[in-house]
Amino acid sequence: MMDSRDQEAEIHPLKNEDRKSQENLGNQLKNEDNLKSMPLQSRLSRCRAVAFFLSLFICLFVVFVISFIIPCPDRPASQRMWRVDYSAAVTYDFLAVEDINRDRIRDVLFLYKHTNSSSNFSRSCADEGLSSPCTFVAVVSGANGSMLWERPVASDVALVKCAVSQPRSSEVSSACILVGRPHSVIAVDLFSGKTLWTHPSSLGRNASILSPLLQLPDVDGDGTPDLLLLVREEEEVNGYIYSGTTGHQIGHRGSLGIDGESGFLLHVTRTGAHYILFPCASSLCGCSVKGLYEKVTRRDGPFKKDPLWENMLNATTCRRLVHSAGAVRHLVHIPGKAGADVLLVGAEACVLLDGQALTPRWTLNRAQVLRKPIFGHYKPDALAVVIENGTGIHRQILLLDLSSGAILWSQALPSLPGAPGSASLPTADHRSAFFFWGFHELDSTNETETGATWHSLYMLHPTLPNVLLELANISANIVTFEAVLFEPSRHAAYVLLTGPTTSDVPGLVSLIKHRVRDLVPSSRVVHLSEAGPDSDQAVRDRFSRLRYRSEA
Ligand SMILES: *[C@@H]1O[C@H](CO)[C@@H](O)[C@H](O)[C@H]1NC(C)=O
Ligand SMILES: *[C@@H]1O[C@H](CO)[C@@H](O)[C@H](O)[C@H]1NC(C)=O
Ligand SMILES: *[C@@H]1O[C@H](CO)[C@@H](O)[C@H](O)[C@H]1NC(C)=O
Ligand SMILES: *[C@@H]1O[C@H](CO)[C@@H](O)[C@H](O)[C@H]1NC(C)=O
Ligand SMILES: *[C@@H]1O[C@H](CO)[C@@H](O)[C@H](O)[C@H]1NC(C)=O
Ligand SMILES: *[C@@H]1O[C@H](CO)[C@@H](O)[C@H](O)[C@H]1NC(C)=O
Ligand SMILES: *[C@@H]1O[C@H](CO)[C@@H](O)[C@H](O)[C@H]1NC(C)=O
Ligand SMILES: *[C@@H]1O[C@H](CO)[C@@H](O)[C@H](O)[C@H]1NC(C)=O
User: Fold this and answer.
1) Distance 400 CA to ligand 6 centre (A)
2) Which ligand is nearest to the CA of 315?
3) Most Cβ neighbours (<10 Å): which of 167, 227, 302, 532?
4) Could you confirm whether the keyword Transmembrane helix appears in this record (predicted)?
5) What is the pLDDT along the chain (552 residues), one digit of tens a residue?
6) In this structure, are residues 424 and 374 in contact, taking their beta carbons and an 8 Å threshold?
7) How many CB atoms are located within 10 Å of the residue 186 CB?
8) Is 223 left (phi over 0), alpha (psi -120 to 50) or beta?
9) What domains lie within the chain, and their CATH numbers?
């Protein structure tokens, strides 16, 4: 038990000490001890104070050193704008954006055809045993446009597929696979530019290479995906399988026994069976990969069959699966909860097909779409598809809700021939910023009279659906356009590859990067409906403050 004084001592420890010392004063016997302990205690508390302030000082000093004296690990500064020029060259409709020098800023890979490479550190066509002119693969730094590597690869290039993983002595590397003309298959290491392998291909003289190059699951048991090249020879599509590690052809040529066009899609059904889908004369055609693989290798492969699909194919390898109103122009995969669905974009309608039963989920009639659709988010986290209905002065941009096919936004936006495709970038509010090319006649200015042939770049954000921001006017011929986040969750930029319209006439080829935000202050605000409550400056401020998000 505690007596009341001790309890009080716990509540008022200092008071208690006073009282104790008073008691001690009266106590003659213990007086000497106390006279010694008193200064000792105060000296102790002084020590404590010194220790406290010393450690505080050390803490502050460490904070100071870390924040001001020791520099942060060097983060390469990204230039807001850069440009790379090649004279007397032609270029290809291809761009790949990947962090190649591992500085955490993505870099740009592109192709050009030139008799001389721009810099003398790179080799010439003759060094690779190619006749001049030949096609180069080039990678420029996304930070400042400086050349990382470039090398001649083939006389001409028909197909490219980048970021194909390659197992290299314990570390996984990435490669670009190129299908060259005349026929060769080449793999180039993405990080060093070294040729990993190159093989002549056994394609016939009149073969036309169909796109894209498909990546099959590993069939030769080396742990790398393998490659399926589809080629049209004498009104029939043939398949060639190549090893992804060595480039060796696996088996023989396998005929699909059917004619078809570019736009192949490797589809996996919900039961895990692989089928190739492609456009063929106003229909969607399908082939069993298992059937094709058995034809090519005369062996059993790692592929499955889907009973429902085998029923649709009637025990043949390939056949027409779905009839479409008008020609089929594009096939696109739509990620779904249970597996991918297929968006069939036709000359007269767009249909979203269920990925298992191939039955329509929704159909948008009276839409003449030529260009491959792109995706973005109009409502938060709900995927929308952007299609272009019609061409030229009758072109209209439509944003459709992917789950229902309902039109979310539509706007007439005429385009000139050769206008590049649209793009989108995710923003921090779980929507997307959309970029469209065109020229608008909303101000009823007669564009054709002035002879201007520039393309204008417009930006839309779903929070301001009645406003388009005209970011830039470009008069050069645009070969490829892409909207890119060079660094995760940082500034949005766009990359333009411009060059001659035909590959016969070499001219100036330029690769240009611009930061979107830098273009906003000088942009033109286009009100699509009667002017809203926002002033032009307020609209520009809203666009300047947009934050972007890296795709997961
Ligand atoms: C290519 O470069 C070499 C030397 O750099 C030059 O002599 C030659 O004229 C160039 N050829 C063309 C077609 O520009
Ligand atoms: C490239 O050419 C310049 C002059 O044109 C020369 O100074 C430089 O040393 C050359 N670089 C290499 C790697 O040969
Ligand atoms: C460009 O950026 C790279 C890093 O991405 C850096 O290594 C290089 O020195 C820079 N070049 C110039 C000319 O600033
Ligand atoms: C290639 O096509 C041309 C015309 O398209 C034809 O004259 C020629 O006979 C074909 N060659 C072969 C090997 O099929
Ligand atoms: C394929 O099967 C369908 C019914 O599923 C049938 O109508 C059609 O005649 C069959 N075609 C051939 C070539 O066997
Ligand atoms: C597509 O454009 C055509 C002609 O410009 C028009 O008749 C049709 O209604 C448009 N389709 C949609 C879905 O808006
Ligand atoms: C625009 O110019 C063309 C040809 O110069 C002319 O035919 C057309 O009527 C003009 N349109 C307007 C709206 O002025
Ligand atoms: C593009 O050109 C048009 C007509 O010359 C002009 O009105 C507009 O402001 C320009 N836009 C930009 C972003 O410079």
Assistant:
1) 14
2) 5
3) 227
4) yes
5) 445 555 544 445 444 555 555 555 455 544 555 555 556 677 778 888 888 888 988 888 877 777 766 665 566 678 899 999 988 899 999 999 998 988 889 999 999 998 665 555 567 888 888 888 889 999 999 999 999 998 899 999 999 998 776 665 545 578 899 999 888 899 999 988 898 899 887 787 788 999 899 999 988 888 888 999 999 998 899 999 999 888 899 999 999 988 989 999 999 999 999 999 999 888 999 999 999 999 999 988 889 999 999 999 887 888 888 888 788 999 999 987 778 999 999 889 999 999 999 999 999 998 899 899 999 999 998 999 999 999 888 899 999 999 999 999 999 999 888 889 999 999 999 999 999 999 865 454 555 545 557 889 999 999 999 999 999 999 889 999 999 999 987 889 999 999 998 888 899 999 999 999 999 999 999 988 876 677 899 999 999 999 999 875
6) yes
7) 21
8) left
9) 84-200 (2.40.10.480), 203-323 (no CATH), 421-552 (no CATH)
- DSSP 8-class letter at 328: E
Closest CA to 110 of 81, 90, 127: 90
Mutation choice for ligand 8 from 524, 527, 543, CB with most ligand atoms inside 8 A: 524
- Prediction pTM value: 0.81
Indicate which ligand has the atom closest to the C-alpha of 86: 1
Q: Which ligand is nearest to the CA of 320?
A: 5
Token reading at 513: 């990067």
Residue owning tokens 């050390």: 58
Which atom belonging to ligand 1 lies closest to the Cα atom of 132? Answer: 13
Question: If you take atom 3 of ligand 8, which residue's CA is the nearest one?
Answer: 473
Q: What number of CA atoms fall less than 13 Å from residue 374's CA on the CB side?
A: 20
Task: Calculate how far, in angstroms, residue 175's C-alpha sits from the geometric centre of ligand 2.
Answer: 29
**Two tokens, residue 188:** 């180039």
Looking from the CA of residue 368, the nearest atom of ligand 6 is 1
